[in-house]
User: Fold this.
Amino acid sequence: MTLRARTNLGPYEIRLLLGVGGMGEVYEARDSRLQRDVAVKVIPASFASDPTRLRRFEQEARAAAALNHPNILAVYDVGVQDGAPYIVSELLTGETLRTRLASGPLPFRKAVDYAQQIARGLAAAHDKGILHRDLKPENIFITKDGQVKILDFGLAKLVQAEGSDLVATLTQPPVSEAGTVVGTAGYMSPEQVRGKKLDARSDIFSFGTILYEMLSGRCPFRRETRADTTAAILNTDPPDLNSSDQQVPPALAKIAGHCLEKRPEERLQSAHDAAFELGALSETSGTVARPAPAGNWRRLGLAFLAAVVALAGVIVWRYKKPATVPRLHQVTYRRGTVWNARFTPDGRSVIFGAAWEGKPVEIFESDLASPEQRPLGLVGADVVGIRPNGEMAVILSRQRGPGGFNFIGTLARVPLSGGAPREIFERVESADWGPDGSLAIAYHNQGKARLEYPIGTLLGESPGWIGDVRVSPKGDVVAFVDHDAPSDDSGAVRVVGTKGDHKLSQTYASMQGLAWSPSGDKIWFTAAESGSSRGVRVVDLSGHDRLVYRVPGTLKVQDVANDGRVLLVHELIRAGILARVPGASSERELGWLDWSMGRELTDDGKWLLFDESGDAPGNQAWIYLRATDGSPPVRLGEGLFCDLSPDGKWVAAASSDFSGHLNIIPTGAGQTRTVVFPKMKLFRARWLPNQKQVLLLGSESGRAIRGYVFDLEKSSLRPLTPEGTQLNGAASPDGQYAAAEAADGAIFLFPVNGGSPLPIAVHAPEYVFGWTKDSKSVYVAATGETSTNVYRVHLDSGKRELFMTLSPEDKAGLTYLAAVHITPDGKYYAYSYNRQISELFVVEGLE
Assistant:
């Protein structure tokens, strides 16, 4: 049936017909409950009486709804009206890959970019036990901002893998069994056209045909008849890509060929491997760079092989110049953390801020001709810039920002030769000198990070935080790292100047450190596609981004001298969890992998909820529940900034990419429910005691961050705090109040059910992290570096009592103590810590 405009289908108002396919009609519609535009797919009336088609349509809904990944079409809802089933999904704007290919092959950079995204989406589906089985350019959608979405899991088949949670919950039999051929001619694998039982490697073959077509402009096996096409798939190798007019780089052609092997056991064995090899190729060749999952040792071996092939083929083919071996000169040798560092104007010395052996940060000078370093008498300060005349810009009295990754303090200027600092501006997180002596600053105001250059002239804003502000050598452009999420260090290189405001790089999972080249035509920065192991990259002003240098651990670019030497910090970083729990006489280590952040300690102290977002899980975050007796944790699912429901049966979590997906994950048997807020970046979720509502921290379409209340039963969302005011901790045990921090740092209690906020005797950088059982007092702490005082504040009187001091024995390299959790009776607690051991190097010959 064709629906008319303004027809209601459940809560969805039909607006217009977008298209008709073999599985149904697709309409643009409006969700009257959440006030958002959606796509609605309705099975045609002629199919409604066909049990096979109905079952396939049902399977499409279940398979797609089980997937939550940025490269897979998001499914919001499913329903039936007047006997017609329908599926509701996100509404996309852009075009299919088939339309894009109508004008011929894609540039290599675009082809690798799209292929990586397709591979990542496939990997997510395969990890859930779902095959697509009908991959083709028509089922690949390219949005206007270049994001790939895999469409139509209507032919997906659940892999009957032993122990699969998904198979256990989706118990309906697969639509087609071995012996039935389902797919599209030209893109099916040999085993698929033979009607054999399929696994993930069949999708890898179809993926290979798409990659081949993107590179050459033609399907490798398509012939005039279906029979000839089938014969080509079974018996004929595709034409060599290296002999085409495009002259496809050998390493890239090899990846495509490896996917198109006739025998499944000779192909790439997983979509993770495909994404990893493409990522290794793009990094070494500069073709493209997007997040790729971290791999196991076998994948690391594949990546190494790909890198060798790329270095031997692509780099020589593209750049025609021999590689140089970087030469490293170590500057620091003490145990602790180096923060910011700059070359002196003559390039003979380095000025840096460091915290050695657990002492406070201090500014030092090191002559590069000698291993000695001398303190400059600026304790508690860090350097952010040096003028050609030797004057320094420093940050005084710095304190860690609310997101945990940045520092905020008072900007001051002080002569390098010595003297008292002269204070200039408060709440500054980054600054740099322009060549004319004016200052560029990034600071916080009204819940947003603001960039000014010179001071008083607004250039840009960010809902998160702005790091590594650097003025170009000519003074006409300011570059910085735009961290649009306030609670992590993901970011992109952004430049603002005479030619406008531009995002130069993709958004990386971790990005810190940035400096201009002496000529001002390139920007050096350090970033990681997943985890936190940042490598050195270079991007030109046209957005061409390439990897230059990588070592084990993580790197941070600090400065580039006039002769091209690069100042780098090498870091070994780990986040762990220490806890005082039942049965333990001292604090117990409960961290698991490399970036463990505690999110909830149960009231009896026996269970700890935490997430892992470092190198181990790759380009996502994993949620774990662990018994505090030290037994191994149980991995529950994907997400970040999660919270455990009062009954312990559910976890609410934001998605790793903060894309607006709220995941409700069972701790036992059950199925994950995902709620999507398409116009919101979602950063954090906390349960209310009634378990019917969730407190959310998010920002809508570039607006300032604020708190919300989401009702799970009514699917309704309402603001709780004004814009610029962010939720500060858990709700009170009686469910009446939630603590939130206003833009000026004042802490208020906001009534969950409406009313005027109540001020309390707490002010940032302190935050409310817990309540006493009677809801009459709160526990507060400030994020410390080597120790943190925990106070109990009585709400009626404002009386403050020192409750405990958290201070690990080994303080060297500690950069923060945070994410404190305490049981309502005050007996047990847990907190996260970060240890960052740094060494400062001057590196020659990186280009």
User: Anything to note?
Assistant: The CA atoms of residues 107 and 208 lie 17 Å apart. The chain has five domains: 8-89, 99-319, 327-547, 582-719, 728-827. The longest strand covers residues 829-844.
